[in-house]
Amino acid sequence: MPNLVEIRDVQFGYGDRTILSGLRMDFPRGKVIAVMGGSGSGKTTILRLIGGQIRPQSGSVIVDGQQVQTLDNSGLYAMRRKMGMLFQHGALFTDLDVFDNVAFPMREHTNLPETMIRDLVLLKLQAVGLRNAYALKPAEISGGMARRVALARAIALDPQLIMYDEPFAGLDPISMGVTANLIRKLNDALGSTSILVSHDVHESFAIADYVYFLSQGKIVAQGTPEQMQASEDPYVKQFVHAEADGPVPFHYPGKTLADDLGLNEGRR
Fold it and tell me: Would residue 71 count as lying in a domain?
């Protein structure tokens, strides 16, 4: 099976509000796939569907040959054992030091002896350049360093699938470049599949093999970064070149301000 993750005709929403509609996506093994789009386009919802936190109302989400929505709690637990997740802003445990943050998934999911966990944690921290920061608390390190610690935690169990939710948010340009290079190098070293949810065009295009563009819960464009850079599609052009005018409106859809203020009543 060439794809580690397949999404087929997925529909999802909250009440009357549709979040994802008719979604079809492939995430091949060993590749870095970027899922891009504006705020509220449904990007993070895709990660939650893949992880089994929520279930589609119709369609299917398949991870390593298993339909996620049919798994019970023990099945989901076993599947998540093969996944790593880098949460937006890192989400480190503030009361634990760097070492124990990275060791946490090893202690939670394995019965490895502490001596082996120690060696593995130091190896993961070495991979992100923070081995000598193992005794520091999250409050004692910078935002960029905290993101790298979170990355070391995400790869603690050598997962088949690594999901990144806005990994570049709030980082300075140097930290963004370091984080992007780490995502690419670690993906290749582990042979993993990486799903990168982001709205940062430059860093994502530099490391992704393929890009999906979402708007209002639908795929509006897809292709290699080079194809997207050269695309004449109005949505892609607006997003890639950060243009104010285009298919993506500034205002949330609904009634006009004049309607809300009752200014149109006298004209009817």
Answer: yes
